[in-house]
Amino acid sequence: MLPVVALVGRPNVGKSTLFNVLTRTRDALVHDLPGVTRDRHYGVCRLAAAPFVVVDTGGLVDHAEGIESQTARQAGFAIDEADVVLLTVDARDGLLPTDRAILDRLRRASKPMLLIVNKVDGLDEHGALAEFAALGVASALPVSAAHGRGVTPLLVALEALLPKAEIDPLAVLPDEGIRVAIVGRPNAGKSTLVNRLLGEERVIASDVPGTTRDSIRIALERDGKRYTLIDTAGIRRRARIEDAVEKFSVIKALQSVDAAHVTVLMLDAREGVADQDTALIGHVLESGRALVIAVNKWDGMDKYQREQCVASLSRKLEFATWARQVFISALHGSGIGELMKAVNRAYASANHKFTSSELTRALEAAYQGYQPPLVRGHSPKLKYAHPGGSNPPTIIIHGSRTKHIAEGYRRYLENFFRKRYRLEGTPIRIEFRDSENPFAGKRNELTEGQQRRRSRMIRNAKRGKH
């Protein structure tokens, strides 16, 4: 495994900013509001001679309760698995009692440690370091994460403390396997599902809506297959979003859909299908991603409630009947196996490989079964088809008068191809292209014999007039 470096400290000292600098990404959500980060966030730093894993953690506070206590538990997990801990402090705030309490905790963990004095830009570095000398940490480094200053000395100091990687670093690239984004409204059970799949308390799951803020990517191996789970923040209607942090969380959640291979939409069976759920499905369709609908909290419902839930799904999700609906209980684990099978089928369908010959034969069969409506007395002709890409499967059809083909006929072709190739859980895109007339713009040159016959016909026509 690659060595692990954990970023630990009070809220709003710049841990997430430093994480983004080290990983050369914008994966960690950064805001001036304290306590934005709650879950463990992993990334790979490749700036040093040898790569290592960086773990961003939530800020630690005194007398933590509720969500803050769960954030502290996540930070504790990161400290336990780290090879080196970076205690990050704020040079502008100076040395605070909370910094001393965190240091005492780290010393009890007996981990190699570096003191990162952040936000030294515009300050006297020697004076800032002198104030934190009271902590008794031998290795203190001045850093300005917001401006990328002091990163090189930090990497040099880390290189001396980190153990050597035991495996090829290319074998642990992020986003390995099938990328599965788990999206839905707040409190639908997304984080609970992630923890159930992993078999551990990897992300914070709470009854409080809006617990998850960052989009967390987590590797998973199940039944010999590799996945990257993306736990996202709950998405509410735009009119209800007032907090700037929530706005950024929603943006990152929607970006996770674009980056995923398969999207799992979590629904609360007790609340049914809301307008926001259909809007989320619409975004998934626009992105062209495979879709599985997980109806959560199915356990504990009586027969009548289940019938009402199924009727609501059938009525409101009629436009996405191709998406598999799986009824699960993320809390108790029922239906999880069927859910992952649906994810695998959706991924396989989204990446199905077609050949031009088989698509053309399928097009001919569809055309013979039902021809498109007439346009100004003429029927559009569909000549041949070929693949145009995957995820989603794209089929390009060439013919004449294709610009006038009705939307209903396009849906007919989508359903025909879906049924013929047993494509489940993925949208299908069909593009029509008018075939060019090979004689367009060319003048018909007559042969000598045709010119003589043309002249003879003209003379005879003139004689007939007289």
UniProtKB/TrEMBL annotation:
UniProt binding sites for GTP 1: 9-16, 56-60, 118-121
Superkingdom of the source species: Bacteria
Compositional bias ranges of the Basic residues kind: 452-466
Residue segments, region Disordered: 439-466
Keywords: GTP-binding, Nucleotide-binding, Repeat, Ribosome biogenesis
Domain EngA-type G: 3-166, 178-351
UniProt-annotated binding residues for GTP 2: 184-191, 231-235, 296-299
Pfam families associated with the record: KH_dom-like, MMR_HSR1
PANTHER family: GTPASE DER (PTHR43834:SF6)
Subunit structure: Associates with the 50S ribosomal subunit.
Physiological role: GTPase that plays an essential role in the late steps of ribosome biogenesis.
Family as reported in the entry's similarity comment: Belongs to the TRAFAC class TrmE-Era-EngA-EngB-Septin-like GTPase superfamily. EngA (Der) GTPase family.
Matches recorded under HAMAP family: GTPase_Der (MF_00195)
Protein name as catalogued: GTPase Der
Species assigned in the record: Dokdonella soli
